[in-house]
Amino acid sequence: MPSLFRSLRAKSLFVLACVPLLLLTACGNAGSGSGTTSGGSSNSNANISITVGGKLDTESKLLTKLYTLVLRDAGFKVNEKPAFGNNTIVFQGIKSGAIDLYPEFTATGLDALKKTSSLNDQQDYQTVKDGFKQQFQIDWLDYSPLNDTYAVCAKSGNSLGLTSISDLVAKAKQITFDLPSDSSYVFDYLKPKYGLTLDSFKAVHKVDYTIGFKEVGGGQSDANFCYSSDNGINTNNLVALNDDKHAFPAYHPAPIVRDSVLQKSPDIATALNALAPKITTDVSLQLQKAVEANVNAGMSQSRAITEAATKFLKDQGFCKKNGCQ
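Structure (tokenized):
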């Protein structure tokens, strides 16, 4: 299943064993004021504190910020803990009470339940929703269309006319394919639906993940293994080919929240569920591009994420109640 790079991007769930020292540190910080807080609303939500955590990659930091700002706009006092930790740490954190809520991905939730994907997005979501409720007393709110899954990328407007993985199959003997040496597992998904193996291609380059983007963007290779919402798609003028036979499991993000916290106010679900349909794969790519531009303009990454997320929410009609602070 996912390789070292997937662990760095914090999507696949490894062994659910918390690192004691890190978790104790995280638990000790909960509610201590080490994150930023905002309140001041006159409604009852102002008396409810919610600690929102998140994973380490830029996309997860953006999701954490979006959830934080929407909840603050609904009047809640939010203690934000971005980059709280990797999959293991955030999952143990929500179970222990160190954090109350964080963005999780559906296929990662299946890993936690030790279940495989049905390759039906709604069915997988219902499986994790029911399983987390029963086993962990954790609720999954509505999931977003964003799908950060495995993918095959090619140059936008490529001369081979590749727009789907079926196109890739038809022209495989003309294609040089880039793949990290530890990512051959991707063909465990591609072979059953498309019949693709490493031997299908004209040539295969075993290169670092980031080098694959550059080689395809520069014309040295024709396609590469990628993740469907990786910012490298933006920076190298690539596209993720349509998985027209649905070979890959879906990684849709959703807020997951402990039952005991969700019961404090129905506005938690109302606010976050209103945001869910706005977060698409294209939106994630646009937000990551905005963060990169902000950083290049001299902002810290933290400020760059805040600026990009706030602008997006305002453009979408949020931030009208108490403001996104």
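Residues 150-240 form a domain with the D-Maltodextrin-Binding Protein; domain 2 fold (CATH 3.40.190.120). The mean pLDDT is 89.
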